What we know:
heterodimer, A: alpha+beta, Tick-borne Encephalitis virus Glycoprotein, domain 1, 17 helices, flat, B: alpha/beta, Glutaredoxin, 2 domains, five-stranded mixed β-sheet, two-stranded antiparallel sheet, 5 helices, 19% strand
Amino acid sequence: MLPELGHFALILALLLAGLQAFFGIAGPAFARERWSNAVTFAVAGQAVMVATAAACLITSFVNEDFSVAYVAENSNSALPLFYRVAAMWGAHEGSLLLWILLLAGWTVAVALGSGRLPPRFAARVLGVLGVVSFGFLLFTLATSNPFLRLDPPAPDGRDLNPILQDPGLAVHPPILYTGYVGFSVAFAFACAAMLEGKLDQNWARWTRPWTTSAWAFLTCGIALGSFWAYYELGWGGFWFWDPVENASFMPWLVGTALVHSLAVTDKRGLFKSWTLLLAILAFSLSLLGTFLVRSGVLVSVHSFAADPTRGIFILAFLIIMIGGALALYAWRAPLLRSSAGFELGARESFLLFNNVLLVIAAATVFAGTLAPLISDALKLGTLSVGPPYFNPTFMVSMLPLMALLAVGIHANWKRGRLKDSERMLLLTLLAAAVLGCGFAYGLYSHASVLTPVGLTLGVWIVLSSLLDPIDRWRRGLTLPRAVLGMTVAHCGLALAVFALTTVQSFTLERDVALAPGGTATVGSYEFRFGGVKPVQGPNYDAVAGSVTVTRHGAPVAVMSPQKRSYWVQHQVTSETAIRVDHGNNVLLALGEDLGAGRWSIRIQIRPLVSLVWIAAFIMAVGGALAASDRRYRTARALESAPVEGAAGQPG
Amino acid sequence: MTRFLLPLAAFVLLAVVLAIGIRHSPEKGVIASPLLGKPAPQFALPSLTDPAQQVRSTDLKGHWYLFNVWGTWCGGCREEHETLLQVHHAGVVPIIGLDWKDDDTQALGWLTQLGNPYQSVATDHSGREAIEWGVYGAPETFLVNPQGIVVYKHIGALTTDTWTREILPRVSATAGGSS
């Protein structure tokens, strides 16, 4: 009964999304105020229906209703309750429903926060969101219905993919998707502005907090995904340039560019058409990510379900959404004029370079991800790329970006004089170089050329970002949330650069074969193997090793890496043991039984790798702080003093 | 005006490529290999375990074999490793590994730690051999028949499902039903 109720709720949601799209777009177009007013009802109704459907699916999982095909394929009676709930988004159909649920959440948030928007504009924004939701609901109902029944019902389920049976699974997809889906709000604002044919600085001010929040979620989601891959895939890497990872990273890069170009549009009324294009692009890349992951066109570690008929549907949807938005752009963007100019050394130029470099970075990732597909389509033979391509090409745009960031935050709007801060910048650069090189060559004896460069840039950005807040504090000025958030996010980025450089330069890794009582020394750590013993879990058998770790003779920990064999899918997974000690991540993975009590063990010591994820979290906190600035919630018209040099008369 | 049309034009181009991409991926959802039904590339490559030795395609003539492209940098390879070990233990068809764009020491460590399912492993530091085979990304597995013809290709981590449903029936159909 519940699955049918869920299915019916989805159908109603589809109809309501259609109404929302129609009223939202046609209402303002034909100046029918009552149509426009009906949009919010459609939004509320759709949200209720989608939530009902999601609740029905989760309940089916909790109740172990194996007559539902999706439940039978992704759950099992031995699966613990926690994973039965999380299994809802463990595969394609449920992931889509999660996508739709989150979109409904964002839409409700926009509807609630639209009080200060002009009603016509708000209706259009909700209308565009309705179109997106309609497309996804249609897609789900037509190709990926999670409520299909099995007749006869399965006696038991085929279990959730063991790799996904991890606490990380419960939080990673919802947060990542919240970020992905959040860019639909910026997209809707962009489309609404183009439908209006008018884009002013207020528009940018309204759009900024939504975009920054989505960006913060995406940052968190990517970091969680990387962390999950690190400890669950079992051999200690944290970024593989896998198509699915790239699919989340490209919107992040373009989203970062959008956050910055929105700042220029807000403060100076410039970059209008460029900002629109970035807003379309960020969301398009989110959609493209879905296409790549779900269509089976590109195959990767993460694509647990792939199906070309779905691919064709998503492609058609992409063409309508992105093609439509870009056609609208070609038609309307020429109407938007930015009259004000700026000098070469002004903050605008730095942000322009920021945008160019970020888009280049996204383009290199894009090219690498799609290269196999494009060369195959053009019958050039298949071309292969991997980390050997991504690592160097990505650095080419990222290193200059970091250097520009340290300088650019001190540039003034409009005028290109850096004089006041030149001395301080040089001083901080000097201090950073000393610290960076000291760390590279002092603490660790060996280092490549890029190591001190990366470390210096990291330290420099932190020092340089802190100059302005310290100066304000000394003069007794308050620090607006937006500036605080920016500083925090930039410091987080700097930490990430620092940590990534350290990890890439100083990771130690060894594979050893140990008999009980045998020892191995890696770096300053000694490992003593104590043998293995069998362990039983709720739905798997395992062997757990015991390894005593000491550092210069002082005990650190007894670590216990496991090898698990899951009953239902007969899949063996490796549960790594990880211990943070003196800033190093010591990772142990149990390998093969070599007979006579001997086991092979992978030992990996990654310095500062935890800092990579902490840094990403700090960036997200910075984004959240900036998004919560009260400035964004007051209309510009009410402000007495317009921003210096504001160009006033847009569109 | 025209510069505002550029994004649309670029997108149309991309859509065409994606559409062709889908048409190229048949019902199984993989990129079709131009090698299917054609002779497998000839190779003579240094062996991972003993660089003085060579792994040669001519030595494999007359036998079924699986050609598995992997690397220690690849997550999917870690995932499929248990399956490869099972295939190896089944003893129906030998697996020839191609260690693609990898570090030899790490690769040897990987095999020591996780177990070695391969009859022999060839190294491909430059990635040239992988291009010969039209490899999109690791892991990829090719099934080659005794006549040296590629009869099946699997992209992504090999699963026991693929093994029992796609590979085993093809081998046993001609090899006389060993399972």
